[in-house]
From TrEMBL:
<feature type="signal peptide">
    <location>
        <begin position="1"/>
        <end position="31"/>
    </location>
</feature>
<dbReference type="InterPro" id="IPR002477">
    <property type="entry name" value="Peptidoglycan-bd-like"/>
</dbReference>
<dbReference type="GO" id="GO:0008360">
    <property type="term" value="P:regulation of cell shape"/>
</dbReference>
<feature type="active site" description="Proton donor/acceptor">
    <location>
        <position position="219"/>
    </location>
</feature>
<dbReference type="GO" id="GO:0005576">
    <property type="term" value="C:extracellular region"/>
</dbReference>
<dbReference type="InterPro" id="IPR050979">
    <property type="entry name" value="LD-transpeptidase"/>
</dbReference>
<dbReference type="InterPro" id="IPR038063">
    <property type="entry name" value="Transpep_catalytic_dom"/>
</dbReference>
<feature type="domain" description="L,D-TPase catalytic">
    <location>
        <begin position="149"/>
        <end position="261"/>
    </location>
</feature>
<dbReference type="InterPro" id="IPR036365">
    <property type="entry name" value="PGBD-like_sf"/>
</dbReference>
<comment type="pathway">
    <text>Cell wall biogenesis; peptidoglycan biosynthesis.</text>
</comment>
<keyword id="KW-0573">Peptidoglycan synthesis</keyword>
<dbReference type="GO" id="GO:0071555">
    <property type="term" value="P:cell wall organization"/>
</dbReference>
<dbReference type="GO" id="GO:0016740">
    <property type="term" value="F:transferase activity"/>
</dbReference>
<keyword id="KW-0961">Cell wall biogenesis/degradation</keyword>
<dbReference type="Pfam" id="PF01471">
    <property type="entry name" value="PG_binding_1"/>
</dbReference>
<protein>
    <submittedName>
        <fullName>Lipoprotein-anchoring transpeptidase ErfK/SrfK</fullName>
    </submittedName>
</protein>
<keyword id="KW-0133">Cell shape</keyword>
Length: 263
């Protein structure tokens, strides 16, 4: 009651101040325009106080990975997003979990959310946190291919492997750029796709192109199909199996990982 009284008192002072200003300016209350009325003024509601965020959008590190691993256990987050980075997908998974527990959908992890998450999941194992790299023909692929969706491209074996959550779904023969136009190595993502692409620089067809590093892309090469490893690309990853790359092109999405390495 005391708080309500104070709010009404403040409102009254505000209105009173307005009328006083009119009188000081030489205008009486009676002479005020008809549409000026002394309406009771009241502040309603309180400013919300949000709990402290332990990890939120933009956070990174081992603790974020542990939270992600717990969300994976609950099937609220796909394994591909187990990456130490609190991004859009992790935020969405956190909100889904909060909704399921009928707690505020903050989209970040506060202490209460962490406590609730710990109650319904187990401490992530080392294997859950860092899934082992898949093994093909007795040889491990690059560890970065172990989680999520990846075009795992090995320059040493001249193979492209389409890997989903550590399982090799498809394997294709590939060739790379010449010495002066070498295919870049490293970790990339598919930036954009072009089904019937034609290179403006070299005036050559690049069907089913999946670009990952500037002008470098994975694409079908009729020259590779005809000449094999006798030729080379201008930096792209050439595929010679048209049937397989047609299927691969539809499976791969913008944002999927591209790992180019030497085993």
């Amino acid at each position: 009651m005391r708080g309500l009284f104070v709010r009404k008192l403040v409102g009254g002072l505000v209105v009173g101040g307005v009328l006083a200003g009119l009188l000081t300016a030489g205008t009486s209350a009676d002479a005020a325009p008809a549409d000026v009325q002394a309406v009771p003024f009241e502040i309603s509601g309180e400013l919300p106080i949000y709990p402290k965020a332990l990890w939120k959008n933009g956070s990174s590190g081992a603790n974020v990975r542990k939270v992600e691993a717990r969300l994976v256990q609950l099937k609220l987050l796909e394994k591909r997003y187990l990456d130490d980075d609190f991004g859009t997908m992790t935020r969405s998974a956190v909100k889904k979990f909060q909704k399921s527990k009928d707690i505020p959908q903050l989209g970040y992890v506060d202490q209460n959310t962490l406590d609730q998450l710990a109650k319904v999941t187990h401490e992530p194992t080392q294997t859950e946190l860092y899934p082992p790299a898949p093994v093909v023909d007795g040889k491990k692929l690059d560890a970065r291919c172990a989680t999520g969706v990846a075009l795992c491209i090995d320059k040493s074996t001249r193979k492209l492997r389409y890997v989903v959550d550590g399982v090799v779904k498809m394997q294709l023969d590939v060739r790379f750029g010449a010495v002066k136009t070498a295919t870049r190595e490293g970790s990339f993502t598919v930036g954009w796709k072009s089904r019937n692409h034609v290179s403006k620089l070299y005036d050559s067809k690049m069907p089913y192109a999946m670009f990952f590093s500037g002008g470098q892309a994975v694409h079908y090469s009729s020259d590779f199909a005809a000449r094999g490893y006798n030729g080379a690309s201008h930096g792209c990853v050439n595929v010679r199996d048209l049937g397989k790359i047609k299927v691969l092109f539809d499976e791969v999405h913008v944002g999927d990982k591209v790992i180019v390495y030497r085993s």
